UniProtKB/TrEMBL annotation:
It holds the Pfam family MRP-S28. It comes from Thalassiosira oceanica. This is Small ribosomal subunit protein mS35 mitochondrial conserved domain-containing protein. GO terms for molecular function: structural constituent of ribosome. Transmembrane segments: none annotated. PANTHER family: MITOCHONDRIAL 28S RIBOSOMAL PROTEIN S28 (PTHR13490), SMALL RIBOSOMAL SUBUNIT PROTEIN MS35 (PTHR13490:SF0). GO terms for biological process: mitochondrial translation. InterPro entries: Ribosomal_mS35_mit, Ribosomal_mS35_mt. Residues 29-124 form the Small ribosomal subunit protein mS35 mitochondrial conserved domain. GO terms for cellular component: mitochondrial small ribosomal subunit.
Amino acid sequence: TSLGTTAELERRAFEMQEKKLACGVPESALRFRTRSYERSVLPPYVEAGEHRVVVKLAIKDIPFGSERERKVFLEMVGPRYRPKTDEVQLSSEKFASRIENKRYLVDMIERLVESSRGLAREFDEEEKLQA
């Protein structure tokens, strides 16, 4: 660029600034989808599915330490994994607020990744004991 920086330096600076979840997933990798409706003056004032939040996350964006962690994670998410697109899709309408549902989904992703790491570690330790 005109300032004498290279694209590589800019990329590294962006990575340093990018926020990550506690499990190591970059926040920019999470793609959220919501639905909104026009406000009605007649009942019902809240439409069905108005507070639903859907999040998609590509498997390549999850920093797994081993292939076993990846396999355990995919076992845990089950049918929420879309092999065609190599993405996990989670949704929530547990709370009456999109913000709360979004927080819940982010927390769920963190717990799933951390749990898959813990279970993979346990499986590795069991194999070492059996060997």
